[in-house]
Amino acid sequence: MSDTSVRRRGRPKGTGRVDPGAIVDSALDALADGGYPSLTMRGVARTLGVSLATVQHHYPTKDVLWRAAIDHLTNDAIERRSHVDLTDLAGKIATFLEQGVGRPGLLAALLSDRSPGSADRIGYIAERFTAALVEPSERLRSLEANGITRQFDHRALFALITIGVGSIAGAVEAVDTIYGFDLATERGRADLASGLADIIGLGVLRRE
User: What is the C-alpha to C-alpha distance for residues 131 and 123, in angstroms, rounded to an integer?
Assistant: First the structure.
């Protein structure tokens, strides 16, 4: 057996080339598994089957990779949101559920980060979230001005949808077992989104 046919334990296989997008995807998977502490450059390299140097060629440090992952997350949310009518609240919620089911627990792991340096990371997330919410806030104000919706605190709605719905989507098995909504299916997500939109839109008190 030649030396080239034997690899040391833990040595990644592969060509040494990788799409930067695949590195970011792997980083997001790691973050969903356990937040910032679970993200390691070596772990990403091992998952992708490339060397640590290959990952570092694209993202020199863990913090640079983390920021790239957050940027991708917010950019993807903006892109998805552009195809959703804000008056279609059920559709918007279903979109967030679909995103959350793809990487259960990701948003909760990011926002509950308490590891060293977390204040700076939460600050960066806040910066990106704030920028991402400018356009939908303007659209909601336009709907209010035209009498389509009543005036309300947009921040509360955004918090409910992004964090609340995101957390629900991160508990796929529990939501199915306890409440009977199978979020792994489009029908299940649509059913829950419809129920939540009805409660958010109309409230629960009888109107005279």
Answer: 12
Cα–Cα nearest to 69, from 8, 25, 134, 124: 25
Q: Phi and psi (nearest 5°) for 59?
A: -135, 95
- Rounded to whole angstroms, the Cα distance separating 123 from 119 reads 6
Q: Mean pLDDT throughout 9-15?
A: 44
pLDDT tier at 54, thresholds 50, 70, 90 = very high
**Region of residue 94 (phi > 0: left; psi between -120 and 50: alpha; otherwise: beta):** alpha
Which class for 40: exposed (0-12), middle (13-18), buried (19 or more C-beta within 10 A)? middle
Cβ 58 vs Cβ 23: under 8 Å: yes
> DSSP character for 170?
T
